[in-house]
Amino acid sequence: MTETLPQGDSLAPSSSAPGSAGLTTARGAALYIGALLGPGLLLLPGLAAAEAGPASVLAWAGLLILSGLFAVVFGSLGRGFPSAGGVIGYVRAGLGARASAIAGWSFLAGVIAGAPVVCLIGAGYVTELTGGGRPARALIAAVLLIAVIALAAGGLRASATAQLLLVSLLIAVVIIAVAGSADSSRLANWTPFAPHGWQAVGHAAATLMLSFVGWEAVAPLTTRFAHPSRQLPRVIGSALAVTSVLYLGLAVATIGVLGTAAGTSAPLAALLRDAAGPGGTAAAAIAAVVLTLGAVNAYVTGAAEMAVELRRPKDARPGARRSTRPAPQFLAAIAGSGLALISLYGLGLASPAGLVAIPTTLFLVVYLGCMTSAVRVLRGAGRLAAVPAAVIVAVVIAYCGWALLAPLAVTLAVCSARPLAAAVSAMHNGRVSR
Predict the structure, then answer these.
(1) What is the pLDDT at residue 10?
(2) What are the Cα distances from residue 194, in Å, to 59, 104, 144, 188, 261?
(3) Sign of the C-alpha dihedral, residues 146, 152, 158, 163?
(4) In angstroms, rounded to a whole number, what is the distance separating the alpha carbons of residues 416 and 228?
(5) Does the domain spanning 25-313+330-406 belong to CATH 1.20.1740.10?
(6) How do residues 329-343 score in pLDDT, each as one tens digit?
(7) For the chain, domain boundaries
(8) What is the pLDDT of residues 53-85, one digit of tens each?
């Protein structure tokens, strides 16, 4: 999963004031790259290779094109609706309040469901080093999740410097793994190219989508550039170039070097072991744990602020002060749901691919809402990019299968919440009148 930049996070500069320095192009590019890269890169290449074999590189290539469309659309939404509050405001602008509530709660649910998945990713790299099967991996993942919950309870949040160091660490690990293992690449590993049929490419794309969310998190930063019309194209171009090289490089190396073993749950560890020997596995485990703690900390704090925004009364004062610490009940909910999902994995009742499918599908629904709204409210390049993006997202959603039950449940809950609240209020008023 990519790292989300929650509203108000220390990664985002404070609102520009007259005379204040704007966001530089270099720093803006670093923040965009940081939003697009995350621990999901440690697992998803292996899952995609297991689903589609060498043909999974087609899914990577197609989603990189889609990522470019997302960049244009969210950049336009960020400039056109600078105070919209992220995906909630973007969807509300074109589709109304109910659709925006569905998008907001889907995004929140995706973050909550994604946190234990990221912990399992980090735990998988630890067990590659220490040994141990599914129960050991589940136990380590649970410890990581509890550690992050404890950090969030203290009101801690990763600083901008720390987050950028995490991104630099991930980039360095990928470069070392890809470059160091290049000599072990074999052309024979690319045949058969599509061992599971061409339909599998669609399923691989649905899995990989989790690596391509992030543009929506940094779109609000467009208002922080001193000269957005000149800086933003450079920032987006740099972010696309860097992420494209890393994604495709890792995808090609995973297939070319690992061959039939590419379906491992820790492909980077396998590549680093080939590049640097046993020390590579240890380095991958350390990097995975650090990335897991940083990313999940960002997820939890971001989800907490999203929950506050969704529950904020319509007549609330915009500048109202609120606590910097997530509510204990909210943290308890994340811990409970996360430990439950990790337990399902530990008991052999859920696979990594199955767990990844839940947040991926929820984020896809959010993106579909944003793209559809953008078609209605944007003009020019933004609208031209939103049309094909909406179509592609809808096609990828069709490959999500049973995981569509998650956004369906969110939709039913949102649609029934208001009538239920009205009915309860009517019952209460009736009793009072008696």
Answers:
(1) 33
(2) 12, 37, 37, 13, 15
(3) positive
(4) 41
(5) yes
(6) 778 888 899 999 999
(7) 25-313+330-406
(8) 999 999 999 999 998 899 889 888 877 776 545
